[in-house]
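Weekend entry, working from home. Most of the wet-lab plans are on hold until the incubator is repaired, so I used the time to fold the two sequences that have been sitting in the queue since the last round of cloning. Logging both here for the record. First:
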Amino acid sequence: MKFPGFLQNSGKILLAAALFLALISCASSKAVHLIDLTTKESPAETEIILTTSDPVQYQETKLENPPCLIISFPEEKIISNKGEELEINKGPIKRIKNEYYLEKRRGQKLLNLMVVELKQDVSYTISNNGNLITLKIESPLSEPALPSPQNSNQNEQQTSDKPLHLEPGYIIGPEDILSVEVWKHPDISREVVVNSKGEITIPPFKNLSVIGLTTSQLEEKLAKALSRYILDPIVFVTVKQYNSQRVIALGEVKTGMYTLKRKTTLVEFLGQVGDMTPNANIYNIKLIKKDGTVFTLDLNKLLADSEKREKILVSAGDTVYVPPLDMNKVLVLGEVTYPKSLILKGKMTVADAIAEAGGYTRDAVLKSVIVIRGEPGSQKGIRVSLKRMLKEADVSQNIELEPGDIVYVPKTFIADVERFLRDLAFPLTWYFWYLR
């Protein structure tokens, strides 16, 4: 009877099939290790390079608001020990967020997707070469240098690489309008208004406090709260309108307190305020930051430089002061045809001031012109030789004037400048302020 042999053969077939299925299962569940995540920066682009133990398949998704790239691994098991949030701040890249899930059987930390947050919307390319995934992101245009705060002893315009912009850690306040995006959950994503108590309403939360939080902190708070209802929520928060931002305008404009609805340049703010008086000194507008730092800016130069114009912004707590022209005077006295006070509009040199006063007389001693500068009691005298400037083309003698300067063209050579200041500076200064 051959029945037992048949059973024996059937058992071998079943065993072979089980082994085959086990091999397939093992092959399909093979985990890939994320070995390294590095960034490289060059003037043209910034690269993010993922190195894995074996080639992996990925999907890419681009979001415009806020600008970011999402690289997901829906069919791969990638074991990773990288941090959940990496501050990059290279080129256009702000930071990288790694979203994980926990495999219950082995308790391994598996990478679900990687979120690359960008500072602005730029072009990119992504490629897969074996066990390398390379993301190349074009660098934005470089920012121009901006003026540094004015020095208490001098008003010269200098350059600084410190940009004037809204603080990156913007604190959310009442009446701000926020855009909340929950990835793959359009039913929750929406625009919300922060009420007077500093709360927002977003499903499933009726009143969620957001006062005093930055957008990054609110993203973390929402993701933690939504994780009770959604698996691994990814949240993006941006400020659509900065209604809690107040800026004060003073001087030769329509004074008052104004609300910024969005990121606003100084030029745009002045245009919105409007109503500058004819006496407005647009050459020396003061932007006083909330920390007390003062920037002196020339509106004409900003209008002529589109790149710099877009970089100089006003933010909450700032004060914009447009001084009057009649506070921006210089006085020309001595051996000139028409001694007078002059309104300082933009750049004016000693030679310009003397020319405005009708030129010098026949008795003028051009090699001993004195520029009196400073407040009474702390004045200094600067000797200028216009003779060297005219005969030897020494332009270093033709110094640029500052508000409050007194240009004195003597009749005789002034040998002792200190004695001259002691004897004549006070009467000249009194005369100067009397004319104003």
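Second, folded right after the first finished:
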Amino acid sequence: MTLQSRHFLNVGAHGGVKRHGKSSENRTGEFVESIEDFHRSRNVIEDFSSHTLAAISSCFGRLYYVSSLKDSESGRYEHEGLTSLYPESAVQAALSQCHEELFSRILETPLQEQAKDLCACLSTAGEQYWDLVENWRENCALRDMCPEGLPDYLSDLFCSNMCALLAIFSAKKPS
């Protein structure tokens, strides 16, 4: 038994192992499916993190990339490589979790460090650096980098931080 599965189990009053949740009461198998889904999502996250995200050097770059995989109409993430290897539900859960984790990591980072990371992200654009700064400043697409289902104040904070940083960068533009 793995550490993760032990978390979902406890010893019953008569010394037997009792599973938490409806599946043990109704014998529907939901418990087993949730453990399997967890493991599949974890495998997707490990694969995606080590093969794709590891190649992107900045947190903002990773966030931008993951958010670009999300279809704005359907809210679903599109990644052909992952969906060819893993079940669709595991890919959706994993990419959603990665999106939220990257977003949270940025918000938990001091603004000065966010500025350095955003600068590193934008620097990968090379000659288009200033075009990208201006495009992000003028475009309301910053909200597209925010995961769905979060409180509005977190999205507002992220967008406010981004606008402030981009304004600072823009003010440094050579004439």
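Plan for Monday: verify the second prediction. The chain has one domain: 3-171.
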